[in-house]
């Protein structure tokens, strides 16, 4: 998609600052000489990649680059990250319930199918991370997306993988997957309280088997 590529390059070259509002669809169409539906498709692609966030009635805003790591990120311990996720993600999914589009929900369902079909732990972890990223994207809040992705990058480290491997049992995988399904269903039903409850339960469960705090 030519317009998507052009806008992505301009975002990388900092034509708009992080958090800055982009021109309207009409203005972009006039600037680049394309129809508004072409602009809309390009913006949808950029939003799916986390490069921008769109708010109905407010406009389109540039996000922090997905690969931009804050200073000191490599020093975060897995326990600190899980504790932070416990504070962030229940409220994150609550906001996702309120703002998720049908496209957002379709992305969540795709990730669920991926975790259902995963043949091994690396495959499951890949789709698990993608599902949590889908929850973040569904908030349509650039700051939340950036924070969530910063925490998610710690999951790629060896020490995290060694701890998470403790969950690689049939029973624990089944529990994790049941929680995943319950969270997505809560989003589909627009049930903020249930989504928040299940997400908190999910992260506490992960914290328990990673750090030996299971009850």
TrEMBL record:
Gene3D superfamilies the UniProt entry points to: GntR ligand-binding domain-like, Winged helix-like DNA-binding domain superfamily/Winged helix DNA-binding domain
HTH gntR-type domain residues: 1-65
Stored SMART domains: FCD (SM00895), HTH_GNTR (SM00345)
Pfam name, any one: GntR
InterPro entries, sorted: GntR_C, TF_FadR/GntR_C, Tscrpt_reg_HTH_GntR, WH-like_DNA-bd_sf, WH_DNA-bd_sf
UniProt KW keywords: DNA-binding, Transcription, Transcription regulation
Keyword Secreted: no
GO molecular function: DNA binding; DNA-binding transcription factor activity
Keyword Transit peptide carried by entry: no
Name of the protein: FCD domain-containing protein
Organism: Teichococcus wenyumeiae
């Amino acid at each position: 998609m030519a317009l998507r590529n052009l806008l992505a390059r301009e975002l990388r070259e900092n034509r708009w600052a992080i958090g800055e509002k982009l021109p309207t669809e009409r203005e972009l169409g006039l600037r680049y000489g394309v129809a508004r539906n072409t602009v809309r498709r390009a913006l949808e692609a950029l939003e799916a990649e986390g490069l921008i966030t769109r708010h109905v009635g407010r406009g389109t805003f540039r996000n922090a680059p997905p690969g931009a790591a804050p200073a000191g990120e490599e020093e975060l311990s897995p326990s600190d990250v899980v504790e932070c996720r416990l504070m962030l993600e229940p409220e994150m999914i609550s906001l996702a319930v309120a703002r998720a589009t049908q496209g957002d929900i379709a992305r969540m369902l795709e990730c669920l199918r991926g975790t259902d079909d995963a043949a091994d732990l690396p495959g499951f972890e890949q789709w698990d991370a993608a599902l949590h990223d889908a929850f973040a994207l569904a908030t349509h809040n650039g700051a939340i997306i950036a924070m969530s992705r910063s925490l998610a990058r710690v999951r790629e480290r060896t020490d995290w993988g060694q701890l998470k491997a403790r969950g690689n049992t049939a029973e624990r995988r089944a529990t994790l997957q049941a929680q995943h399904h319950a969270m997505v269903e809560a989003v589909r039903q627009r049930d903020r309280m249930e989504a928040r409850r299940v997400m908190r339960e999910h992260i506490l469960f992960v914290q328990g088997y990673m750090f030996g705090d299971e009850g």
